[in-house]
Amino acid sequence: MKIGEKQTLTISRFKEFGAYLSDDGSESVLLPKKEVPQGAKEGDSVEVFLYKDSQDRLIATVQEPILSLHQTGLLKVKETGKIGAFLDWGLPKDLLLPFREQTKRVRSGEEVLVAPYIDKSGRLAATMNVYPYLEQNSPYQKEDRVRARIYETSENFGVFAAVDDRYSALIPKQEAQTGLRIGQIVEARVTAVLPDGKLNLSVREKAYLQIDIDAEAIVKVIEEYEGVLPFDDKVSPEIIQREFSLSKNAFKRAVGHLLKEGRIEIKDRRIYLK
Q1: 3-state secondary structure of 143
Q2: Measured between alpha carbons, how far is 218 from 239 in angstroms, rounded to an integer?
Q3: What is the spatial distance between Cα 158 and Cα 170, in angstroms, rounded to a whole number?
Q4: Which residues does residue 168 pair with via DSSP β-bridges, in sequence order?
Q5: What angle do CA 194, 198, 199 make, to 5 degrees?
Q6: Residue in 167, 64, 85, 80 with CA at minimum distance from that of residue 128
Q7: What is the pLDDT of residues 184-207, one digit of tens each?
Q8: CB–CB of 58/3 below 8 Å?
């Protein structure tokens, strides 16, 4: 019998409080009386979902949860408590999202991307660390436009995202923007489909299209500095990232574009708006 999954079991016997279901072995599980199909009899097959009730007993239900074991999807936070958050997944007993499985603190009423898993005690719980459970067989190809939900950020790799809340994707550091946050949905471009099926994304346009966007962003910042930027294109990448949310290469390309158009000039280690 598989906890967290739908399966077909056979009614082996009835009790006043319900029916006991069994598989081919000797193990059995209770289907509460209110959920026993009308007119059911011993030997009938019933499709059920197995989970543990509030008293930690394995129990069957004919109700279908929003997510089964290892599926990824959105669940709503009903409330938060001392050990984590409780999610509505369509069954009488809410699904626990422990604090240790939260990539950010969640609030009541919020929808979060999670996957059910079996914890060390054999109970079903939810995790926001969905990387192992995301699918790698997306229908998307290079240059396709997709919607992706951010679920984790990494200083080393970039931003991890789930396309359509189900397919595994990464926005590499050089293709990301500052300020991207967990739970945010972004419009992105597929830059590569890796051999294992995972997607690489960019939230930036191709360089020849992005350069105009970046150039206008730089002009806007110069205007905020009253027409004189107190540094030139040799400034540190950290300052460029802070002021423009651009990489140094993207900044230099955009500055070169503005110079070529005659909209700015560089002198005395400053950038002037013409």
Answers
A1: coil
A2: 13
A3: 7
A4: 162
A5: 80
A6: 85
A7: 999 999 999 999 999 999 887 666
A8: yes
Q: What are the CA-CA distances from residue 149 to residues 7, 101, 115, 264 (Å)?
A: 31, 17, 14, 38
Neighbouring-strand partners of residue 161:
150, 169
How open is the CA angle 118-121-122, to the nearest 5 degrees?
40
> Residue 19: pLDDT above 90?
yes
Three-state DSSP at 124 gives: strand
Compute CA distances 69 → 55, 124, 140, whole Å: 20, 8, 25
DSSP 17-76: TEEEEE-SSS-EEEEEGGGSPTT--TT-EEEEEEEE-TTS-EEEESS--SS-TT--EEEE
Assess contact for 87 and 101: CB atoms under 8 A.
Answer: no
Max CA distance (Å), the chain = 91
Q: Which residue has the tokens 């030139």?
A: 232
Residue 266 near residue 232, CB atoms below 8 Å: yes
3-state DSSP helix/strand/coil % of the chain, to nearest 5: 20, 40, 40
**Tokens read off for 114:** 């999670």
Spatial strand order in the sheet of 73-80 = 95-98, 84-88, 73-80, 111-118, 124-127
The percentage of residues in the chain with a pLDDT greater than 70, rounded to a whole number, is 97
Q: Tens of pLDDT along 67-120? A: 999 999 999 999 999 999 999 999 989 999 999 999 999 999 999 999 999 999
Q: What is the pLDDT of residues 160-185, one digit of tens each?
A: 999 999 999 999 987 776 678 899 99
CB count in 10 Å sphere of residue 123? 15
What global pTM score does this model have?
A: 0.73
133 token code pair = 């459970």
